[in-house]
Write a structure and sequence with these properties.
The chain is an alpha+beta fold and about 400 residues long. The protein has one domain: 3-Layer(aba) Sandwich (Aminopeptidase), CATH 3.40.630. The protein has ten helices and 14 strands. Helix 1 runs antiparallel to helix 6, helix 1 crosses helix 8 and helix 5 packs antiparallel against helix 6.
Length: about 400
């Protein structure tokens, strides 16, 4: 029996861990388009960088944003049809101590085509502005909380998120998995760390509370072995690369975690994994369904797992009446093309690939970042990113509708 336990926990850690990765920024507005500095020559739609409405970053991270980088297409037939697949909703939340509300900044749909032994992963931007049934308009990362605590629909927050995705994208989900951020570092450490291959060095501004100044979190190009703390920074920072660029890194890390878990004797690490998962994982899947899902996942060929997301090419920046910066769908056909064309997306193993001959020069000096609110009152000894501000009060419904 023991020979089945390692793959079981390996795939749990690999296939569903995405929920822990994006759940960082709570209640912070993105900047309006005019306040964002794009890379010279970049003709992409203005992305909603960062967590503050007055962010000024001295320079873009490279010549081409990750979400617009050329990625190899691997054509395959027949096309992937979401209406014919088993679709699972993966939610990543950040429920902070002493804060009754939360945001769901990771929203992913995993489609399983059991007949053809393949899968697809579709990421939904956190700032997508949609109509919430029996509530009004808001960001999609608010829906889980609203369904759970405000409108209290049958099935809770996941049921409401599923309804919104069905109404907006035409994707019906049959099951859900929800992760909390709290267990992420522990899970990475429990598998012995994760090695990620970076085509270019990685630079992101962070605020160091010890020195009360901005500095760069950096990683070199090549194979980088990350412990839990390093991995947490890699998958959460988004001041320079935006939420879309961050999603590319998270998909890359998720696949690397899968590889690490599959080659590690996790039976020896069972106690650490159990502690990490026990407080950070819930689902409506039964144990038998999870075992069947795990068996399917470990049998997938890397070429048969595609990953993509709705990006800034398909959405438009918009300022709500309350002053919130959001992303709206103005051309549903463009969005539907991404959804329906998921099988034309890169394989998940190639997420975040870049042209290593076009890596930007390393930044010189400290990053120049101006924020209306510099993180304060946090006693952590490690640096934090600009988005990590814990609200001291419970937001009103009106604030939830316009905030996030």
């Amino acid at each position: 029996m023991s020979r089945y336990l390692a793959p079981l926990y390996a795939v749990i850690a690999a296939f569903f861990l995405a929920g822990c990765m994006q759940s960082v920024f709570v209640g912070m507005p993105a900047p309006v388009p005019e306040q964002i500095i794009l890379t010279p020559g970049d003709d992409a739609p203005t992305p909603p960088f960062g967590p503050s409405a007055n962010l000024v970053l001295y320079e873009g991270p490279g010549e081409t944003p990750p979400e617009l980088a050329d990625m190899p297409d691997v054509p395959a037939e027949p096309a992937f049809a979401w209406r014919e697949t088993e679709n699972i909703l993966v939610l990543g939340t950040d429920r902070r101590p002493h804060d009754a509300s939360w945001r769901t900044d990771t929203i992913i749909v995993v489609g399983l085509d059991r007949e053809r032994q393949r899968a697809a992963v579709l990421s939904i931007p956190r700032d997508l502005y949609i109509e919430i049934p029996n509530y009004g308009y808001g960001r999609i990362n608010q829906v889980d909380y609203i369904g759970e605590r405000v409108t209290r629909v049958k099935g809770g927050g996941p049921a409401l998120v599923s309804e919104v995705l069905s109404d907006t994208l035409g994707i019906a989900t049959s099951h859900w998995v929800r992760f909390e951020l709290t267990g992420f570092e522990s899970i990475v450490d429990a598998v012995g760390g994760v090695t990620v291959n970076l085509d270019c060095p990685f630079y992101e501004p962070i605020f160091n509370l010890d020195t009360n100044s901005w500095e760069y979190f950096t990683l070199p190009a090549g194979e980088v072995h990350m412990d839990g703390e390093t991995a947490n920074w890699f998958v959460r920072l988004r001041l320079s690369e935006s939420d879309i660029g961050r999603a590319n890194r998270q998909r890359q890390f998720l696949w690397a975690l899968r590889d690490q878990a599959l080659k590690t004797n996790l039976l020896r690490r069972f106690p650490e994994l159990w502690r990490a998962f026990s407080d950070s994982f819930d689902t409506d899947l039964s144990l038998l369904q999870m075992v069947e899902l795990i068996q399917f996942g470990i049998g997938l060929d890397a070429r048969n797992v595609r990953a993509s997301g709705i990006t800034l090419r398909e959405l438009q920046s918009h300022i709500t009446g309350g002053g919130a910066s959001v992303l709206i769908i103005t051309d549903p056909a463009k969005v539907q093309q991404v959804v329906d064309g998921i099988w034309d997306a890169p394989v998940m193993a190639d997420s975040n690939r870049k042209d290593d001959t076009r890596c930007p020069a390393p930044p010189t000096g400290a990053p120049v970042v101006s924020l209306d609110i510099v993180p304060a009152g946090n006693t952590a000894e490690t640096p934090i990113d600009a988005g990590e501000v814990v609200s001291p009060t419970i937001p009103t419904d009106a604030a939830i509708n316009e905030g996030g």
